[in-house]
Amino acid sequence: MDLTSSHASPVLTDPVPISKSRLGMHSGLLSYSQQDSSSPLSSSLSPVKYSRTSSRKTSGNLDDVRSNGWLDAMKASSPPSKKHPNKAFNSHIDSSELDYSSWLLEYPSALDCFEEMIEHAKNKKIAMFLDYDGTLSPIVNDPDRAFMSEAMRSVVRNVAKCFPTAIISGRSREKVYDLVKLTELYYAGSHGMDIVGPASHTLSNTHPDCIKSTDQQGQEITLFQPARDFLPLIDEVYKRLVEKTKDIQGANVENHKFCVSVHYRNVEENNWTVIGQIVHDTLKDYPLLRSTHGRKVLDIRPVIDWNKGKAVEFLLDCLGLSEGDDDVFAIFIGDDKTDEDAFKVLRERKGGFGILVSSTRKQSNASYSLRDTSEVMKFLEMLVNWKREEENKQQQKRHSF
Ligand SMILES: O=P(O)(O)OC[C@H]1O[C@H](O[C@H]2O[C@H](CO)[C@@H](O)[C@H](O)[C@H]2O)[C@H](O)[C@@H](O)[C@@H]1O
């Protein structure tokens, strides 16, 4: 990416004047207009909200974290799906189950509504987008052990044989590939900031952040890395966060190449504010980075106008599926706040829908829901079976002529 160029780039120009000396970058490209409204954390931690002078004055005061309301967000992220008896009715009816059932009226189960849903996709080209953690693999305490089952792998492989399929993850592209291990798919790592898509000569010739390349099998591919210039900054902040959190038991910082994850799932709850404050204070020195909130994780990422939604649009473009929207039906399955950007794109685009994986009530841009990874697997199986039946029907039709 040419940070001094004037052609279209996902790096937005921000009117807030900040020092550009750190990266020696051109003034017009360093800042950002805050886009991620989904996260209370990101809005409170955003460098945009703090002028450089005022932010320097607010030093490590835990009240920052509490009063900005994002301690609540930390607590609320990834709530366990606990069942508790409904005391009000003095019965064994589980109130969280009742809650969930009423929520399902708004976000119907993609399994129960499969026929209705698939009706919209009939005679269209389906494109499948999948998140990884919490969607293809259950949430576990150790991010390095978030394996997907062989059964899930096999279903995802079948899906990819039927439809163009991509995994869009918050993890680095390499890490998510190591976990998925399927060559039949396209991968977008670092929340879509590192994409390997099918060869698109139009895109790689015209898009400033696209490179034509070849994969290990010698196949031509399109590589898209809009945040490449942020690599040294990401490395630096990663090292600082590792250092600053090293004495907090359970804290875990992951380097995902174009973003950094600070996990607090295994940290004692009364230390969450400390984690939040560390991230908050560290980001004051990095106005080119912002944070978003995932499931018991704070993700630090470049302030570029790029997210999973943009990655979906980009991949549809690569696949030659972005024109003639009416012929294309895109499905995105995800469980996290960062997946909301993709759900929103599909909602606005109309040719497709988002499916939220959740066992608790959540406000979402998705249209349907699935309860957990086992339901995701069932849904994917249904989709593959449906496609095979459709193909059989077509074949029979052809033979009968
Ligand atoms: O976009 P995703 O593929 O869903 O990635 C989002 C984050 O996933 C990982 O963390 C989450 O899953 C872990 C393993 O189950 C869990 O321990 C953690 O609490 C979750 O937040 C990954 O480690 C993060 O870097 C990603 O941002």
From TrEMBL:
Pfam families: Trehalose_PPase. Its EC number is 3.1.3.12. The keyword Hydrolase applies. It catalyses: alpha,alpha-trehalose 6-phosphate + H2O = alpha,alpha-trehalose + phosphate. One of its GO terms (molecular function) is trehalose-phosphatase activity. InterPro entries: HAD-like_sf (IPR036412), HAD-SF_hydro_IIB (IPR006379), HAD_sf (IPR023214), OTSB-like (IPR044651), Trehalose_PPase (IPR003337). Residues 51-61 have a biased composition (Polar residues). GO terms for biological process: trehalose biosynthetic process. Removes the phosphate from trehalose 6-phosphate to produce free trehalose. Trehalose accumulation in plant may improve abiotic stress tolerance. This is Trehalose 6-phosphate phosphatase. It comes from Acacia crassicarpa.
